Amino acid sequence: MSVTSSQKLNKGELTQLLDVARESIRGHFSDELPRPPQLDLYGKKLLRPGACFVTLEVDGELQGCLGTVTANEPLVLEVHNKARDSAYQDRRFMPLTEEQLDRLMIEVSVLSEPQALEVESEQALIDYLENHRDGVILSDHHLQALFLPQVWQQLPTPEVFLRHLKQKAGWPANYWSDTLTVKTFTVTSIKGRYFQLSDAF
């Protein structure tokens, strides 16, 4: 089965995905029932299964961020669903309100397929991340945590990045285990306001 990679999308296709995310959120505030994207309007690459995250910010503060690392559905549908989920299903935040829309920023991140990284120690992982500011997934038994590459902007050193990632999974900051698995990935992303300039006229 062909899968959409983050490296294969051009700016026009990413812009289409951003519009899909906007429409998914807009549909919640419409008098009509929200509708999924009309698939025959999109090219082959956007119809392939793809993994993505949709991140929402209001006044520069995180308002929601949900996604998947597994490509199960057509990418355009995955973006539609994850935009809706980030706006109304992220349990860390109150659901998005209509009053927040004029201050809303949306970012769509399309993921590459995660690759297993063999490291023998946390220091080896830190050394790798010094030169590779990738997205990271840590897993051990039933616990898992993921940070997108964009998180490096807020947590710029590998030590701090990993400490927060482990805390997100529910582990202590100094946690390490021989059974811990590490995967890395990259993203291609696009970010824009919920209201486009043309919406103001």
Automatic annotation (TrEMBL):
PROSITE patterns: AMMECR1
SUPFAM superfamilies membership: AMMECR1-like
Entries under Gene3D superfamilies matching the protein: Hypothetical protein ph0010, domain 1, Hypothetical protein ph0010, domain 2
InterPro entries the UniProt entry points to: AMMECR1, AMMECR1_dom_sf, AMMECR1_domain, AMMECR1_N, AmmeMemoSam_A
Residue span(s) of domain AMMECR1: 12-201
NCBIfam families for this protein: AmmeMemoSam_A
Name of the protein in its database record: AmmeMemoRadiSam system protein A
Protein species of origin: Photobacterium atrarenae
